[in-house]
Amino acid sequence: MTSGGLPDFRQLTEHLSQLTADMQRTQEEFAAADVYGGSPDGLVRATMRSGKLAALTIDPTAMGQDSTRLAAQVLAAVQDCEVRSAELLMRRTGPMNQAMEKVIGEIASPPR
Fold first, then answer.
1. Among residues 36, 31, 29, 33, which one has the least CA distance to residue 78?
2. CB 23 within 8 A of CB 94
3. Is the entire prediction scored with pTM above 0.85?
4. Where are the domains of the chain?
5. Which CATH number is correct for 25-91, 3.10.129.10, 3.30.1310.10, 1.25.40.10, 3.30.420.10?
6. Does the record carry DNA-binding as a key word (predicted)?
7. Helix residue spans in the chain (DSSP H)
8. Tens-digit pLDDT profile for the chain (112 aa)?
9. In angstroms, rounded to a whole number, what is the distance separating the alpha carbons of residues 73 and 42?
10. Which of 3, 48, 59, 94 lies 20 to 30 angstroms, CA to CA, from 36?
């Protein structure tokens, strides 16, 4: 805060610029990261990149399963990958979200 009770906008602008750069870097890292998930039986593996399914691998022995069971295993592998992808993104963006909330709080706090 400045002596007049107003936020120091120069400092806030610097914080926002740093947060923007950090977010851009995080988005680039997330886009390049491969995230892996698998079915409970380990016969189906999924890979996601940028939060989208990029690859699906089915062990040949899984082909002996009936179609309903195989479909359930594929779905489980993709869902596992989605959860892991979301967790990765939350770990990377969590600190930035907290910093952004702090900056917003400084802007929104009433002058004293």
1. 36
2. no
3. no
4. 25-91
5. 3.30.1310.10
6. yes
7. 9-32, 67-108
8. 455 566 677 877 887 888 888 888 888 888 888 999 999 999 999 999 988 999 999 999 999 999 999 999 999 999 999 999 989 888 888 777 777 777 777 666 655 5
9. 9
10. 94
